[in-house]
TrEMBL record, chain A:
Residues 1-24 form the signal peptide. The keyword Nucleotidyltransferase does not apply. The keyword Signal applies. Keywords: Receptor, Signal. InterPro entries: Bug_dom1 (IPR042100). This is Tripartite-type tricarboxylate transporter, receptor component TctC. It comes from the Bacteria.
UniProtKB/TrEMBL annotation, chain B:
Keywords: Membrane, Transmembrane, Transmembrane helix. This is Putative tricarboxylic transport membrane protein. PANTHER family: TRICARBOXYLIC TRANSPORT PROTEIN. The chain crosses the membrane at residues 12-33, 53-74, 101-124, 130-150, 157-176, 196-217, 353-376, 411-426, 433-451, 463-485. It holds the Pfam family TctA. Residues 14-438 form the DUF112 domain.
Length: 346, 501
């Protein structure tokens, strides 16, 4: 008898646990939500940011959410397959930059998918030189190119890593027409490979990030690994929103020295080029609009509560929630702006 | 002592739990240590950093070690780095020495794991400085050195080299990915296959297809003649005793060192470590002909090297903020999720976390040894399960593993089938599986480092002039190739002499 009762209780509890998320969710989005991301790394900023958002959404809507680091190709395939709305994607500006740079597998996200809300900015996109480099500032780099010195920049081609290189080349073209050829890209892959090129003396400037490279900037100058920031592509207003402590031992004030206008890379001779790496949702083209509204509403509630902003800032993200409609217009404008310089240099 | 306050019963329980789950992941064909960590990573969100790392390090050690079980008992490498364990482990099982082979493998794994943990603890920052001396060129030469194993593994030199080259060719199918610094263009890929093969063939489905499904198809062709259970003696002949390691200390030390060293070079990968140490075990062996026929020496080389990786791959992670292999790349997630920055100053600025990680790593190795060594007698009995029951189970695990490896890609299951059939038919026309797989595993990396070397330095001569390390590696490559050629000529002469007599 006791055995039977225990069995029944166990089964009932199991059923209740399984059913809980389904019952808790009272909007059109029910059951499980799979968040695929455009990165195959679980150690990068896309996974970190997506995990923060997924956890908050799961709690707010009352459903199970799992983040899968599938990489961009498989993420797009998974998104394309699921019209029910149980698979969504979180990615960043690479989604349209890859398309603008003509990288295979990058369809125009504004045509092929629905752009969802923006959620955060990673303000850490940076350019670094060896600590013993003769170039102290980004202006020194521009002047070196103007004086016919070849500057090699290690980047990962076709996206966020390349946009800063393109902007720098554009700035040289605007200020010293014909000299932009002195800035050359060294195409490489991971951050490790970019660092290695700097250690080997095969690059004069590398793309990196505040998060990944800050500790290298605190090494003594005679260390082969020592580096120095010369440029952060983020807007000044974006960095100003970071915690005062900044990252590691580099304070927010320290970081502000490396953004426009202190570190100036002109866009058109008048205003400076800036680039904030923004994370946003992408949806299947045929997804139920009610689900889009539900996610927008849920995120609005989450950001109004204010707790998530602290979590994001603790991880060196800048909160940047914009509901779907606003995000679509905003990101389209942003894409159009960068399209101008990419096309001019291709 | 701040460290003692972190060493709670929960900490040790999580490490032990991680090891046990990791062993299960490693032992299931198609599931890897990387997958175990990726699955459990979200769990660390609710734990503090110390306990999160305890769980993940346990999974790491368990996952790497568990791969030897199917490699030895079923000839299916549980993880890519246990491929060389099959070369001698499975023949030992066929000779009725499955339990002995497993115990040799587990003891070697313990030695490799502890050896690399000690190296990590004592020399991490210094070795990280050595690691950055290895540019694209030196990494390419290490891969090339590992590829020379194809020559010494070949039953017939020319066919083996052809099989290896074919493996490399298959590895190059797909996109030259921009995340590798490539141009994003498709290679060797007809338009109608772009949708399936844009990322190329995945390693794990190819591996378990060729070893797992290929074997099952072969057995199916032969017909399942079920032997009486008691005739399949899984422990006949010599029993395990630690005296087996007598005279193997140099092999253990050399293989653990190779594992640790290759582990600390970001981007070179675990498979290269075990392949390299197996080659060296064969080259230095007094009876090289016997390797590949069921010699404990081969299992020792492979297993001590792939566990040597665990500490080795943590060196660049903790001293440079750069993961040494795909599994430690997941481990980095535990730090980022907790907002902890990794880099060259990590150890100095986080001494407690560093000490706790070392305790966890050593404890995980000890738990792995205790769990596997004493449970193995029961695990080894899997070979006594009738094949008509065993093979469908293995097939199901292979399919599940292949489907799950890239988060649910159906084409990976087709890959499993394609390469299973390919291995079965290929062997009929003389294709050699081991050289093919080694070519497939190392081909992609060889291409990237070769192309990147040329792009960065612009000349072929740089491969010989870049550094003393490059010259040293060329020396090793030359010795390895010369040895294989000499060995082949000697074998042919012996055969001819035998025929003549």
């Amino acid at each position: 008898m006791l055995k039977k009762l225990t069995k029944t209780l166990c089964v009932a509890t199991a059923c209740a646990v399984v059913a809980m998320p389904v019952l808790a969710a009272d909007g059109p989005l029910r059951g499980n939500l799979r968040v695929v991301i455009g990165s195959s790394s679980t150690g990068g900023d896309t996974y970190q940011n997506s995990s923060i958002i997924a956890e908050a959404l799961a709690e707010n809507i009352g459903i199970n959410i799992k983040v899968d680091a599938t990489g961009v190709t498989e993420a797009y395939k998974a998104l394309g397959r699921d019209k029910r709305g149980n698979t969504v994607m979180i990615f960043h500006d690479q989604a349209y930059l890859g398309n603008l740079y003509g990288v295979k597998g990058y369809a125009d996200p504004f045509e092929s998918y629905i752009i969802g809300p923006t959620v955060a900015i990673n303000p850490g996109n940076a350019y670094l030189v060896p600590k013993n480099s003769p170039y102290q500032t980004i202006e020194d780099i521009i002047q070196a190119c103007a004086n016919d010195t070849q500057i090699r920049v290690a980047i990962q081609p076709g996206g966020v890593s390349e946009i800063g290189y393109t902007a720098l080349k554009n700035a040289i073209k605007v200020r010293y027409p014909g000299k932009e050829g002195n800035l050359v890209a060294v195409n490489t892959g991971s951050q490790s490979d970019k660092n290695q090129l700097l250690f080997d003396g095969q690059a004069d400037l590398i793309n990196g990030s505040v998060q990944a490279n800050e500790q290298y900037t605190r090494l003594p100058e005679d260390d082969q690994k020592a580096m120095r920031f010369v440029w952060l592509t983020a807007r000044k207003e974006t960095i100003e929103q970071a915690h005062e402590e900044g990252m590691g031992a580099t304070t927010r004030d320290d970081l502000l020295q490396f953004v426009s206008p202190s570190a100036s890379v002109t866009f058109d001779g008048d205003k400076d080029f800036t680039f904030d790496k923004e994370f946003f949702f992408l949806y299947n083209k045929d997804m139920d609009p009610a689900i889009i509204e539900q996610i927008d509403a849920s995120l609005t509630e989450i950001f109004e509560a204010g707790e998530i902003q602290e979590t994001q800032k603790k991880s060196f993200f800048i909160p940047n929630f914009k509901p779907s409609a606003e995000a679509q217009t905003y990101l389209k404008d942003k894409r159009d702006q960068y399209e101008v310089i990419i096309e001019a240099l291709q | 002592m701040e460290i003692l306050s972190n060493l709670t019963p929960m900490f040790f329980a999580l490490t032990a739990f991680g090891v046990m789950v990791g062993i299960v992941f490693g032992a299931i064909p198609g599931m890897t240590a990387t997958m175990a960590l990726a699955v459990c990573l979200p769990m660390t969100y609710g734990l503090d950093l110390t306990n999160g790392l305890a769980l993940l390090l346990g999974l790491y050690v368990g996952g790497i070690s568990g791969g030897l079980v199917p490699a030895i008992l079923l000839n299916i490498p549980g993880t890519p780095s246990s491929i060389t364990t099959t070369f001698d482990g499975y023949p030992m099982t066929q000779k009725g020495q499955g339990e002995r082979a497993l115990k040799v493998g587990i003891s070697s794994s313990l030695f490799g794991g502890l050896f690399s943990a000690v190296i990590l603890f004592l020399f991490a920052p210094t070795l990280a400085d050595v690691a950055i001396k290895f540019s694209y060129i030196e990494k390419f030469l290490i891969i090339l050195f590992a590829l020379t194993v194809i020559a010494s593994l070949s039953q017939r030199l020319l066919v083996g080299l052809f099989s290896g080259a074919l493996g490399i060719w298959f590895a190059l199918i797909g996109t030259y990915d921009i995340t590798d610094g490539g141009n994003g263009e498709y290679r060797l890929l007809p338009d109608f296959l772009v949708n399936y093969l844009d990322s190329g063939f995945s390693l794990l489905p190819v591996l378990i297809g060729m070893f797992g499904l290929g074997t099952i198809l072969q057995e199916a062709e032969n017909g399942v003649r079920e032997e009486a259970v008691d005739s399949v003696k899984f422990q006949k002949g010599a029993k395990f005793s630690f005296s087996i390691f007598k005279g193997q200390f140099v092999n253990l030390f050399r293989s653990s060192s190779i594992g640790t060293f290759v582990g600390m070079l970001p981007g070179v990968g675990g498979s290269a470590a075990s392949v390299l140490s197996y080659t060296q075990a064969k080259n230095f062996s007094r009876e090289p002909d016997k390797l590949g026929t069921g010699e404990p020496e081969g299992v020792i080389a492979s297993e001590s090297a792939n566990n040597g990786l665990t500490g080795g791959a943590l060196i660049p992670l903790l001293s440079l903020g750069i993961p040494g292999d795909s599994t430690t790349a997941v481990l980095i997630g535990a730090f980022t999720l907790q907002g902890i920055q990794l880099g060259p100053l990590f150890i100095g600025e986080n001494t407690v976390t560093w000490d706790v990680m070392m305790v966890s790593l050593v404890f995980a190795n000890l738990v792995m040894f205790m769990v596997m060594f004493f449970a193995i007698r029961h695990i080894a009995k899997v070979v006594m399960v009738p094949k008509f029951l065993l093979y469908p189970g293995i097939l199901m695990m292979c399919v599940v593993g292949a489907y799950a490896i890239n988060y649910g890609v159906m084409f990976d299951v087709w890959t499993l089938l394609i390469f299973g059939v390919f291995a079965w038919l290929g062997q009929k026309v003389g294709l050699e599986i081991a050289p093919f797989i080694i070519g497939f595993i190392l081909g992609g990396q060889a291409e990237i480092y070769f192309v990147k070397s040329l792009e960065s330095f612009g000349t072929l001569t740089i491969f010989f002039t870049k550094s003393p390390i490059a010259l040293f590696l060329w020396g090793l490559i030359a010795v390895s190739v010369a040895y294989s050629v000499h060995h082949t000529i000697r074998a042919v002469k012996r055969k001819n002499g035998g025929n003549g007599a």
